[in-house]
Design a protein that fits this description.
By secondary structure, the chain is an alpha+beta fold. The protein has 2 helices and 5 strands. The chain has a 5-stranded antiparallel beta sheet with strand order 3-2-1-4-5. Helix 1 packs antiparallel against helix 2. Keywords: Membrane, Transmembrane, Transmembrane helix.
Length: 194
C-alpha cells in the first residue's frame, strides 16, 4: 500500500506563487499581527495589571493599621457569615479606644468561638473606621500575579477573537468570489466542445 506524505511548507503564504491570492497575503499579515499583539501586548497588559494590583495592596497595608479591641458579643454560638478565608468569620460588636482616647463601638468580622470580653485585634482605616485586614505581602503578590495573568489571558482572548473575525470575513469574501467564478464557469461544463 502506497502512502502519500504531505509536505508542510512554512510561510507558504509569503512565498511567490502564481496561485497566491491577495487575500492569502492579507490573512498571513493578520495572523502575524494577531500573534505579535497577543505575545507582546499580553505581556505588557499582564505586567501593568500585576504592578497596579501590587501597588494597590501596598497602599492598603499602608493605610490600615491594627488596634486592640474587646468583643462585646459572644461569638461562640453565632452562625458563620460565609466571609473570611476559612468561612469561620462572624459579625460581632467590638469596642476599642481610638488614638484620641475616645471609646468607639462598631460591628466587624471576627473569628467565631470567642466569648464576650475576649481581646482581639481589629483593623481601622485612616479615618478610624472599621475595615478588613489588608493582605500580607505574600498573599498580595500571589493575588497580583493571578490578576496579571487573568488580564493577559483576557487581552489575548480579545485579540484572538478579533483576528478570527477578520479571517472569517476574508473567508466569506473568498466564498463569494468562488461562487461568482462558478456561476461563470459552471454552465459551460454541460456543453460539448466542437
Amino acid at each position: 500500500m502506497h502512502r502519500t506524505r504531505r509536505t508542510k511548507r512554512w510561510c507558504w503564504r509569503w512565498r511567490s506563487n502564481p496561485l497566491r491570492r491577495h487575500d492569502d497575503v492579507v490573512e498571513a499579515w493578520i495572523v502575524l499581527v494577531v500573534w505579535t499583539v497577543i505575545l507582546v501586548g499580553g505581556a505588557l497588559v499582564g505586567l501593568v495589571a500585576a504592578h497596579t494590583a501590587d501597588a494597590s495592596f501596598a497602599r492598603l497595608r499602608h493605610e490600615r493599621h491594627p488596634v486592640p479591641a474587646v468583643l462585646v458579643d459572644n461569638t461562640a454560638r453565632t452562625l458563620p457569615t460565609g466571609d473570611g478565608p476559612v468561612y469561620d468569620g462572624v459579625r460581632a460588636t467590638v469596642r476599642w479606644t481610638g488614638p484620641d482616647g475616645a471609646r468607639h463601638t462598631g460591628r466587624t468580622l471576627v473569628n467565631s468561638g470567642h466569648p464576650a470580653g475576649s481581646k482581639i485585634v481589629v483593623w481601622l482605616d485612616q479615618k478610624g473606621r472599621l475595615t478588613t485586614r489588608p493582605p500580607d505581602p505574600g498573599t498580595a503578590s500571589a493575588e497580583a500575579g493571578a490578576l496579571g495573568t487573568g488580564a493577559a489571558i483576557a487581552f489575548g482572548s480579545l485579540v484572538f477573537a478579533a483576528g478570527r473575525l477578520a479571517r472569517w470575513r476574508l473567508d466569506r469574501r473568498r466564498y463569494d468570489e468562488w461562487a461568482r467564478a462558478w456561476e461563470q464557469v459552471g454552465p459551460r461544463w454541460g456543453h460539448k466542445t466542437p
